[in-house]
Amino acid sequence: xxxxxxxxxxxxxxxxxxxxxNITRRMAEHQAxxxxxxxxGRGPFRLVYSETYEGKGEAYxxxxxxxxxxxxxxxxxxxxxxxxxxxx
Length: 88
Description:
Elements: E1 3-9, E2 15-20, H1 23-31, E3 46-53, H2 56-67, H3 71-77
């Protein structure tokens, strides 16, 4: 099973990092207010970054690694041309 580590930009400009096996479903959950507690009331969202992994453990470790970064370092992960090949 493929796991995706992703970063969302919330409407308030904050960044949220999560993991999922289905990014389309997870985005719909976030938009509907049924995603993570942090994202409730912070939509709409924009998927700005993603990485894929074959195992949950590897994806989870990367999620924790990204969450531990400061905002400036997270922003350096994002594409500079404002595009995202997220999930591709």
